[in-house]
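re: that chain from earlier
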Amino acid sequence: MKKEIAIGIVAGLLAYLYYTGYNITPLIIIGVLGFAAFVISKKKGLLKLDTHSQVVENREINFEDIGGQDTAKQELKEALEFLLKSSSITQMGIRPLKGILLTGPPGTGKTLLARAAAGYSDAVFLATSGSEFIEMYAGVGAQRVRTLFKSAREIAKKQKKNRTIIFIDEIEVLGGKRGSHSSHLEYDQTLNQLLVEMDGLTNDKNIQILIVAATNRADLLDSALLRPGRFDRIVKVDLPDKESRLAILNLHCRNKPLAADVDIEEIAAGTYGFSGAHLESLTNEAAILALRDNCAVISQGHLREAVDKVILGEKLSSRANKETLRRVAIHEAGHAFISEFLNPGSVDQVTVTSRGNALGYVRHTQKEDQQLFTKTALEKQIMILLAGAVSEDILLGERSTGAANDFQQALNMTERIVMSGLSRLGVVSAEVLPKHELFMVYQEILQALEIKTHEILSRSKQALDRIINTLETSEKISGAELRRVIGTGGNEGSIVA
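^ sequence. v structure.
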């Protein structure tokens, strides 16, 4: 009400001055400038971090609720002992840890690990992200950092706890290398304030603060942030291996009704490269598929279908015409046949059902996660990638654009062979090797493997035809059925043409 009265008085005064012949233009300009200054100052005040909204109620998340990541959990537990046994740690003359950096791909459980750490140590848990600290106004980010640490202590005292964990997600936004932002120094000022606050963490003996940060771009972080005394531990939270995937799947299937024939281990083996978030989505999609089919339990088929959906998306409603379907079947049959010929038992499923941008695909089963590859193993993978286009060449007389992605992957693996010193050039560097020489070596490797692939498929047309006919009829074939169709006994070279 007071605001409306004041506006009315000012408007009336301006009107009176205008009608009496007074030049009110300077007054209007001064008023506009004053109002703009007021709004900006008010906005700066509002931009201060509302840390109370960042406090997360930890709903009993324990390390046991996180599947896999045993090494990361062990590293965190060891670091948390400094909070739980601070008195005995001090007697040993050990400096408490100030920060733990969790690095790894998205969806691997970094945030969950931080929340489990708070539950494990019975600490107040404050969560924020690096982007919350950066604004266009100079000094705002640094003020937010100061407010965050001040509030961490105040909230701990209010809740009568003596330890707090501050979790900063996407810390590469806040802690990027100084000098990389040439437009203004706001980023650098914010990072400098964070470094100052971390240096002062040991001053308060009553409230212990541990910084846990997460990033998937550790290469972007400033070196001052990573030195000992700030982030003392760098914990790698990587994609889960087969055993970890099995543990994660079992964890997410606890509250879901599974059929008696469900084999979770088979699904774990067929999901190489999946993160924890992918696996959670897989089990959720399987439950949705079961509900869609009016099934009371989730079957193995639902889980296998969910794997495809997570990788490539939902099935497309439009069905490819007969000519396209045959070409796709020929293409995928080539991939599947060569894969089984070179690595018996490696094919999990072949389909020509369109999903996303893929008209068809072959899903492979890896018995164990490979970290190292020999030249022979890489050459086999290249032959499998080339087999689709070669199969089109043999049976249709020409190739299609569907092999573009296969060729790109084949080139990447060829580069890996050359840069690993496995080609005729021996140990080389891409920086000093002439591009023409590099191109010639790539061509030699790819042409030799293409000829070899062509020879195998040319003498196996009957087996290819059987695969193609099955795919054209049913649009999908399992690995076991594929091996029965082409007559393999499970040993390399035993495929009957």
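The first helix runs from residue 2 to 19.
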